[in-house]
Give the backbone structure.
Amino acid sequence: MTLALAVLAASVGTYAWADEKLDRTVNLGALPDQPPPGKGTTYLIAGSDDRQNLTPQQQKELHTGSDDEGPYGNSDSMMLLHIGSDGDTLVSLPRDSYVTIPAFSGADGVRHPATTNKLNAAFSLGGGQLLAETVEYNTGIHVDHYAEIGFGGFVGLVDALGGVTLCLDRPIVDQASGADFKAGCQKLDGRQSLELVRERHQEAGQDLSRMANQQKFLAAIAHQAETPSTLLNPIRLYSALDAGIGTLRVDKNTTPYDLARMFLGLKGISSGGGHELTVPIADANYSTPNAGDAVLWNMTRAKALFRELQNDQPITIGNNDANSDLSGG
């Protein structure tokens, strides 16, 4: 959807069609105590457990499991994409990060006090709205745009693109997600792609390893969307746009142009034109009093990274030194 969306945006009719299809459910302007807008543009990207486009049989075949963990389901991935002057930066936020969730009103109207819990709990309890507020609260970064894609979106978009090619450093086998892949480069369909991005039981890193696969997956989508087999095939092109846009949830101010910039940023990062890292971590298996084992950020390094992103400064922290305090996993 990268260059394809940018090119099609030149057509007034196509742009209006895409703009009309966007599901704008998150109101970033209504978030309390927002950090001031920073330089550059920052996207909060979430992959959710939303199954509304999947039949019960598809859910079974795709090993999606239960979606009853809160009124909004789960978020399988959370990333901050900053498009700035020092090259673009993609920062993965582990869903098991132990953070402060600000006070909020639940779906039942009951007011809940601020608490510490896993980052994914913010999404489960309050959807994209509370997730965005929680990310801003814990990072100090102003979120300019929000984009969320559900299970049905992962499957439908990849199939509409005719599959994506991913290169794996090692074999991956995970009975829970259904993943069973050999090492090396291979073309995956929608079902296989979902199995890959949900895999987390094979390695000690679990969620950290899964985030690396998710980053590869998003980059693969961006690359496939710009291939001649997509751009020069009207049926595939419109099918991909329909599948991609139709399953996205975004904030009220996001346009198709903003989404094009987002995917171009992802593509550029995967091509070596930016930075790709995980938030600095002090303990990947931190024992909490209320949420089991969680991921504890290295706040000294994390704050330095967040400050650089908010101020659109050169990134001085990379994966090697960001998580150098980890022992095991």
